[in-house]
Amino acid sequence: MKNTYSTNLSLPQVDLGLAFLRIGAGALMLTHGTPKLLKLFSSEEITFADPFGLGMGITLALVVFAEFICSILVIIGLGTRVAVIPLLITMSTAAFYIHASDPFQRKELALIHLLIFAVLLITGAGKYSLDFYWLKRK
């Protein structure tokens, strides 16, 4: 019990915690990306926010890349630090641009995801990830 309150990042509990955080956040974000992916490939006319003037179709494709493809990479822990960058950009845009004038409750989910993905950018995926097994194993 000596290490119960330790901040030593080499503890197994830290890696397990990062795995839960990574898999949970990625899976929850995937639930937002999947309907957008289906919308991208539907025959209906695309109507989507275009905050940067790239066009609705391109913006939707970029969001699908972040929320679907990057979420899968985060879940499996492959290229996690790189994969969270598009997610950070998407969640920042959602919280501070798309929902800027909305009440806090409307932007809270984007802010929570933003916080989680920022933590994963700083810490990386942890030991229970493909990053560790394929790229960092010594």
Description of the molecule:
The chain is mainly alpha-helical and 138 residues long. The protein has one domain (12-130). The chain contains five helices and no strands. The chain has helices at 12-40, 56-76, 80-98, 104-123, 130-136. The mean pLDDT is 90.
Secondary structure blueprint with pairings:
Layout: H1 12-40, H2 56-76, H3 80-98, H4 104-123, H5 130-136
Features:
138 residues; mainly alpha; 0% strand; globular
Helix content: 55-70%
H/E element sequence: HHHHH
What is the general shape?
globular
Radius of gyration: 17 Å
| Count of beta strands | 0
Main beta sheet: none
Note poorly predicted spans. Answer: none
Question: Strand fraction band?
Answer: under 5%
SS field, number of helical segments: 5
First-residue to last-residue Cα separation: 29 Å
The tally of domains stands at 1
Mean pLDDT: 90
Structural class: mainly alpha
Task: Indicate the multimeric state.
Answer: single chain
Concise overview:
About 70% of the residues lie in helices and about 0% in strands.
